[in-house]
What we know:
Blueprint: H1 20-23, H2 51-66, H3 70-75, H4 79-84, H5 87-98, E1 104-115, E2 126-135, E3 140-150, E4 154-162
Antiparallel strand pairs: 1-2, 2-3, 3-4
Amino acid sequence: MRRLLALAAGLCVLLAPVPAALAQVPPVPAPPPAQAPPAEPAAPQPTLGDDKESIDAGRKWLELIDAGKAGAAWDLASKQLQSAVKRDKFTAEMNQVRKPLGKLESRTAVKFARSHELPGAPAGDYAIIEFDAKFTNGKRLTEQLIWALEDRDVWRVAGYYYR
């Protein structure tokens, strides 16, 4: 059964096909071995030119969802996402979907793409990241995170969809 979560105007459809820009991108190289987390978490916005920073920032944003802090994730999201779905609805949906999955075991970036156009979205600058996530109860998710460049050159999450 398909479930729709309007996270951004036309951007985020649960169980939706992968955007064409993402489908044609080669896999991301394996990440280096894990390092100790920094003493203070970095801001979850990537810079304009660094794909690795985009991927790392995507992981940090998703860690908020993993930790049951969907409200904090919404607070950091783009104006597009915030205008498409209210904070309480976003929080309730994320908690409902994620709770049965159990604790995150691993998350690997598998695809990355940049685009200036996405279906149903205004022209702009976008970074699209696909992650494979594995949870303790054996469940797996393919997660797709869309970053959009907003005013003052700040990247923010404009969409999150999963299957």
